[in-house]
Design a protein that fits this description.
- The chain is α/β, with parallel strands linked by helices.
- The protein has helices spanning 18-28, 39-53, 68-78, 94-104, 125-130, 137-150, 163-170, 197-203, 212-215, 220-233, and strands at residues 9-12, 34-38, 59-64, 85-89, 113-117, 155-157, 175-178, 207-210.
- Helix 3 links the parallel strand 3 and strand 4 (85-89).
- The longest helix has 15 residues, at 39-53.
- It contains ten helices and eight strands.
- The chain starts with 8 loop residues before the first strand and ends with a helix.
- Strands 1-2-3-4-5-6-7-8 form an eight-stranded parallel β-barrel, surrounded by seven helices.
- Bound molecules: cytidine-5'-monophosphate (C5P).
- Residues 12, 14, 38, 117, 120-121, 157, 179-180, 191, 209-213 line the site of cytidine-5'-monophosphate.
């Protein structure tokens, strides 16, 4: 089992602009537990871009989904970055997740924690049904979570609404990393199913992924510090 974070905030640096990512990393590093770089940034700047943003291990949110051999190759290719966490899609199946875990194992104790994305929070029940899944989103989340954890994933990326369900089902061990976080009074934007940082932690989240409430603020460092303080004080 992994140590629980002292500061559970993950700042999502959602930009493909290297200078912007560097500036966010500089001001936010003292106020958050981890920085997250995603597909837009990585597609634009690759591993060198990650190194140019920070030398501290990051959360690499690549949401890998391909045949086992290809995903294993991608995992092996990013190991030199020593990412703290790496995402892949649970829908890739047991063999894909096992292959990813095996490839990650080459880094020994320093390997990235593998987080499985179950059902994207952007998918409504109707959109999920369009893909051929007739079960409700929570049923499908549970099915994919079971598969992913049995195949060797260290944790799950889930919406705030699924945290309590997954904790009930799987206990304290799996890492639960939760986007869709909105401090009281902040703009939900395109996130439909949100919780406050405090409520998400109370439900059992280990890490909170926060993007625009921090990066869209006039003073991102103060916004991050305020969320951290609200968690430390128990305020909502
Ligand atoms: O700006 P906001 O706080 O909505 O950003 C949320 C972050 O979490 C984004 O980087 C997004 O890619 C990520 N994410 C998400 N929903 C998921 C998985 C990841 O919003 N299911």
């Amino acid at each position: 089992m992994l140590p629980r974070p002292g500061n559970p905030i993950i700042a999502a640096l959602d930009t493909s602009d290297l200078a912007v990512a560097q500036s966010w990393a500089r001001v936010l590093t003292p106020h958050v537990g981890l920085l997250k770089l995603g597909l837009a940034f990585f597609t634009a700047h690759g591993p060198e871009g990650v190194r140019a943003v920070t030398r501290v291990p990051v959360f690499l949110d690549l949401k890998l989904h391909d045949i086992p051999n290809t995903v294993a190759g991608a995992v092996a290719a990013v190991l030199p970055l020593r990412a703290a966490m790496l995402t892949l899609h649970a829908a890739g199946g047991t063999a894909m997740i096992r292959a990813a875990r095996e490839a990650a194992g080459a880094a020994g104790a320093d390997r990235p924690k593998l987080l499985a994305v179950t059902v994207l929070t952007s998918l409504s029940p109707e959109a999920l049904a369009e893909t051929g899944v007739v079960d409700s989103p929570p049923e499908q989340v549970l099915r994919l979570a079971r598969l992913a954890l049995a195949a060797g994933a260290d944790g799950l990326v889930c919406s705030p609404q699924e945290v309590a369900l997954l904790r009930r089902e799987f206990g304290a061990e799996p890492l639960l990393v939760v986007p869709g976080i909105r401090p009281q009074g902040s703009d939900a934007a395109d996130q439909a199913r949100t919780l406050t940082p405090q409520a998400a932690v109370a439900a059992g989240a280990d890490w909170l992924v926060v993007g625009r409430p921090i990066t869209g603020a006039a003073d991102p460092a103060s916004a991050a510090a305020a969320i951290a303080a609200s968690l430390a004080s128990g305020a909502a």
